[in-house]
Amino acid sequence: MGINYYVHTPACPNACEHCSASEELHLGKSSGGWRFLHQAEADWPRDQAYSLWLERAKSGEIRDEYGRTVTLDELLAKIQAKQNGRSHTAYDPEERRVHGSALYDSLRQSDFDCDGYDFCDRYFS
Questions:
Q1: How far apart are CA 124 and CA 24, in angstroms?
Q2: Number of domains in the chain
Q3: Do 8 and 67 contact (CB within 8 A), yes or no?
């Protein structure tokens, strides 16, 4: 089981009623035994993903999928505490064998490391 985290960006103060809602952007997921998996955009340069992710995380209020608010410092502490968990980017030949090489390899193409943190540039939750 895991917990997803989102940043809720403030609505534009000059927006009409239709577009005045805030935007919920996925920051990533914390799963038991694993490192935190950061959500990246497909068009982000992989070597800049962490700084772009951090910029996104600072853009509004952070909440988990249950609506609980967490500060950026609290989320960063949780991420740091999970750095010794299983990496999403480490190659595992056994999983490749069990899940089939085509599926495993296609999923792994979306997973990458930036500044020592795990990222994924496909949608996940």
A1: 14
A2: 1
A3: no
Please report which helix (H) or strand (E) contains residue 95, including its range. helix 93-99
Of 116, 40, 32, 26, the residue nearest 82 (C-alpha): 32
Residue 125, domain member (yes or no)? no
pLDDT at 94: 66
Q: Is residue 43 part of a domain?
A: yes
Could you tell me if residue 39 is inside a domain?
yes
Over residues 6-59, the pLDDT tens digits come to 999 877 666 666 565 668 999 999 999 999 999 999 999 999 999 999 999 999
Span 71-96, mean pLDDT? 87
Query: Residue with structure tokens 């090489």?
Result: 101
d(C-alpha 125, C-alpha 14), whole Å:
32
91 in any annotated domain? yes
CA distances to 2, 15, 18 from 12, rounded to whole Å, are: 31, 5, 11
Q: Which domain holds residue 41?
A: 2-120
